[in-house]
């Protein structure tokens, strides 16, 4: 990393206030982010193959259904068991259940939900996405990179921070062990995402100034900075999508039933 990149100041991120969801009318689809979500895969890790019911924290009793399927469960592509859930409303076999605010658990057929991609302005007609949507995407990706790095705190304690401050930032005890090359790539990615966040904020302010009939300043070339940040994200994309192959994080190989029997004898 060059000295210019390490000395570039960045402003810490301000967390938005929490929003309490309110009950939705029946004619309106609830937002997916406001609903509680449970999947069959999450319950499968907590129950045995003999379980037939699962009691939720609110007292709802879910019916568990087991089915024999081929191609899972064993390394030799034999047969295995698959867990599915019964919808408390229509008794349909599903893998995901949601609970909207003030309502009970139900499936998609009983209570469809609205995902953020459905509500995105500019999703149809070739219109450009608003800066607020881009800002939410950048902030979400920042949190994902912070989780990969294992930083103890985000945003940083300093109001104005730079790349060298991220290198010296403390990690939480359960942080993943990364190679130096991948860690540097993730730090560059986090710095580029901060530039894109500035660009989204600048575009939002520019639209507000245009609506108020105030001519914005043309001294800052955010288009060039945004282009450089996008190029950095393309260059460091491998660090976000590649699995961690560090030898210290490898899980021990599971023994098959035949190897376990041979070891016992």
Explain what the structure shows.
- With 265 residues, this protein is an alpha+beta fold.
- It folds into two domains: 32-99, no CATH class; 121-245, no CATH class.
- It is 35% helix and 13% strand.
- It has eight helices and eight strands; from the N terminus they run H-E-E-H-E-E-E-E-E-H-E-H-H-H-H-H.
- The protein has helices at residues 3-6, 40-44, 131-149, 163-167, 180-211, 222-235, 237-241, 257-264, and strands at 10-11, 36-39, 53-55, 61-70, 79-86, 93-94, 96-99, 160-161.
- The strands form three sheets. It has a four-stranded antiparallel β-sheet. A two-stranded antiparallel ribbon has the order 1-8. A two-stranded antiparallel ribbon has the order 2-7.
- Mean pLDDT is 76; it is low at 247-252.
Shape: flat
Distance between the termini: 56 Å
Uncertain regions: pLDDT < 50 for 5+ in a row?
A: 247-252
Structural class: alpha+beta
List the helices and strands and how they pair.
Blueprint: H1 3-6, E1 10-11, E2 36-39, H2 40-44, E3 53-55, E4 61-70, E5 79-86, E6 93-94, E7 96-99, H3 131-149, E8 160-161, H4 163-167, H5 180-211, H6 222-235, H7 237-241, H8 257-264
Antiparallel strand pairs: 1-8, 2-7, 3-4, 4-5, 5-6
Describe the structure concisely for a colleague.
By secondary structure, the protein is of the alpha+beta class. It is built from eight helices and eight strands; from the N terminus they run αββαβββββαβααααα.
Q: Which descriptors would you attach to this protein?
A:
single chain; 265 residues; alpha+beta; 2 domains; four-stranded antiparallel β-sheet; two-stranded antiparallel ribbon; 8 helices; 8 strands; 13% strand
């Amino acid at each position: 990393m060059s000295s210019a990149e390490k000395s570039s100041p960045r402003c810490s991120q301000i967390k938005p206030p929490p929003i309490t969801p309110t009950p939705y009318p029946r004619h309106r689809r609830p937002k997916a982010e406001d609903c509680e979500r449970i999947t069959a895969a999450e319950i499968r890790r907590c129950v045995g193959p003999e379980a037939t019911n699962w009691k939720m924290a609110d007292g709802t009793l879910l019916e568990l259904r087991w089915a024999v399927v081929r191609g899972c469960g064993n390394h030799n592509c034999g047969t295995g068991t698959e867990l599915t859930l019964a919808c408390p409303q229509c008794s349909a076999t599903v893998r995901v259940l949601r609970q909207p605010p003030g309502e009970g658990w139900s499936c998609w057929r009983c209570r469809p939900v609205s995902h953020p991609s459905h509500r995105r302005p500019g999703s149809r007609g070739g219109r450009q996405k608003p800066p607020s949507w881009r800002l939410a995407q950048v902030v979400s990706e920042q949190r994902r990179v912070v989780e990969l790095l294992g930083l103890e705190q985000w945003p940083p304690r300093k109001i104005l921070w730079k790349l060298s401050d991220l290198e010296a930032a403390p990690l939480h005890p359960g942080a993943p062990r990364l190679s130096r090359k991948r860690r540097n790539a993730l730090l560059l990615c986090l710095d580029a995402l901060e530039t894109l966040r500035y660009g989204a904020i600048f575009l939002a302010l520019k639209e507000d100034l245009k609506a108020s009939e105030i001519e914005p300043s043309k001294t800052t070339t955010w288009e060039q900075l945004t282009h450089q940040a996008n190029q950095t994200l393309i260059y460091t994309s491998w660090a976000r999508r590649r699995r961690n192959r560090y030898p210290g994080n490898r899980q021990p190989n599971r023994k098959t039933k035949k190897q376990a029997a041979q070891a016992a004898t």
